[in-house]
Amino acid sequence: MSFLQDILNELKQEGAVTRRHLEKVDFKSVDFQPHEKSEKLGRLAIHVAEIIAWWKNVLENSDLNFIDFEPREIKTTEELLNYFDGLFSEAKNAIENADEAELSKNWSMKYGDDILFTLNKKEVLRKFCLNHLIHHRAQLGVYLRMLDIPVPAVYGPSADDENITLIEKFN
To answer: Where does the pLDDT of residue 157 fall: very low under 50, low under 70, confident under 90, or very high at 90 and above?
Structure first.
């Protein structure tokens, strides 16, 4: 199996888990932050959703420049899920239509003229897109727990969600 097929399968599984986490975000608690250095719940939830956009960018471009980045303003869970679903569909299509040869090309994250890092696209998809998504989703799970919101299962049952298929796919 090719790397692109493997990473698509992982994205589908992680997408399903991530969506279940985003479904639990209560926008009445968007200003909650467990520590003054922590991101607020609303911003964290939007960030978890917007990470999915990076997959398409990596496969179709040579860099991502955050100099003019403005996060989307989202006010409801429904808006958040629609945003995530649209970005997920774009990411899935980008992977399905990508050429394996593209993976050896370099990709850079920039802020203006500053290059924050450069890696080949295969590494970026794994480390920056997938691992980064999982990292922030885990943070979101902690926020949910602290707010006494049931935490969805991830790779097996959670204390709140015992009826879960271990390998789910988001289509």
So the answer is: confident
